[in-house]
Amino acid sequence: MAETIKDLLVGNVNWAANTAKERPEFFSKLSAGQTPKFLWIGCSDSRVPATEITNAMPGSIFVQRNIANMVVHTDSNLLSVVNYAVKVLKVKHIIVCGHYGCGGVKAAMTNDKFGFLDNWLLHIKDVYRLHQNELDKIEKVEDRENRFVELNVLEQVSNLAKVSFVQEEWDAGEFPYIHGWVYSLKDGLVKNLKMSINSANDLEKVYQYQNK
Ligand code: CO
User: Fold this and answer.
1) Does 97 participate in catalysis according to the annotation?
2) pLDDT band at 194 (very low <50, low <70, confident <90, very high)
3) Is 211's pLDDT higher than 90?
4) Which of 20, 61, 97, 117 could hold 181 in an S-S bridge, CB 3.0 to 4.6 Å?
5) Contact between residue 14 and residue 144 where contact means Cβ atoms under 8 Å apart
C-alpha cells in the first residue's frame, strides 16, 4: 500500500516501465487520443477504482466520481463530463456504480452532522425519503444500508435519464444504455441491478422531453 508521495512517484516510474515493456504500442497509441466506450459514475471511495475492478486498461473508461455516486442536476462538473461523454466521445454505455458499505450512504441514514458535507448528503437523504416505506421496514441496519445503496444507484440512473441532452441522444439513436451496478467490497464482485435503459419511457411523464 502506498503511504508516501515518494511511493506514488516511484510506483509511477515502475508502472510506466512495465507497461512499455509489456505493451510496446501502449503509450504511442493512447497519446494519439481516447475513444472510450464507457462513462463511469462512481463513488470517490479509494477502494472502488473503475478500471482496476473491471480489469480494463487506461483509455477504456471516461470517469466521474463523487461521494456516493450522485447525479445532481446542478452539478456542472458532472453534467459537463456527461455532456462530453455522450455528445463528443459518443460512449455506448453509462455505468452508475455504487458500492455496499458506502460511507456517504451510511452517513445520510443517520441524524449526525458532518459539517459542510451535510449539504451533499441532503441529496442522498432525498433518496431515502422517496423510498422511506420500504427502507424503514428493514430492521437490520446493515441490510437497510445495503438496500439503500441499491435504491440510490437506481435513482441516479433515473436522474441521468432525466437529463435533456441524454434524451436527445436516444432520440437520435440507440445509445447510450445506462446501467446500475453495485460493487461489493467483501468479494470484489459487481452486482448488476439489471437496469439497462435507453429511453425515457419509464420516467414519469413530466420528465419526458418532446422534440418540436
Ligand atoms: Co462510497
Assistant:
1) no
2) confident
3) no
4) 97
5) no
